[in-house]
Amino acid sequence: MFVAERMTKHPVTMTSNATIGEVDRAMKKYKFHRMIIVDDGKLVGYLSDRDVMRVAPSPATSLSKYEIRSLLDKLSVKDIMQTKVVTVNEDATIEEAALIMYQNKVGGLPVISEVGAVVGIITATDILKTFIEVMGLPSGGKTRLTLEVENKIGVMADITKILAQNGINIDSIIICHTDAHKSEVVVRLDNRAEGFDDIKNLLENRGYKVIHVVKIG
Fold first, then answer.
1. Environment class of residue 90 by beta-carbon count within 10 Å: exposed (0-12), middle (13-18) or buried (19+)?
2. What is the four-CA torsion angle of 56, 59, 65, 68, rounded to 10 degrees?
């Protein structure tokens, strides 16, 4: 799954010559926390709601809303915008985007094309939505089975063989390495498959430790 498939295309942008007041009103209108700043088709920075709060008068001020708005409309975006922008390429994978966000502690990334144009934005919410859909949570009707296994060749082949021989349909498998010798294998199964009641015993009789079972939906 790639960033281009999950990003918001044609994001709202503004130029560095815009006023902070204009950006603030746009962010409130569209309900997002950062504005991408683009000059002549080139990404030059971004402005967050925290940047706006940093230069805005204190809430305790005696200034009226009109006066505060007037002050913000006199300040230029280019004077306070962040110029070091972390981005991701449109052909990157969702995993790459998630890693970049995690490493840089940001909640969103402008998406750049091969020629350097801003073609979208992907956020932590988009990543979470993708994870939820991959796990099949919205549709329900699934069973999530977690096993503790040894890290050795043939384990996954053996588990899938046992499930297949007992008529259990596998929707997805995720492997989480807990240490050098052990892993947790999360298998999402179709509840409609016959013989599921006995599958835990079948797996444990083959030496696999079933540590958690839950039905989703």
1. buried
2. -20
Q: Tens of pLDDT along 115-154?
A: 889 999 999 999 999 988 877 776 666 788 899 999 999 9
pTM score of the predicted model: 0.77
Query: CA-CA distances (angstroms) from residue 183 to 35, 136, 176, 188, 206?
Result: 41, 22, 6, 16, 16
Q: Which residues of 183-205 are buried (b: 16+ CB within 10 A; e: fewer)?
A: bbbebbbeeeeeebeebeebbee
- Contacts with 94 (C-beta within 8 Å, 6 or more apart), sequence order: 1, 2, 3, 6, 127, 130
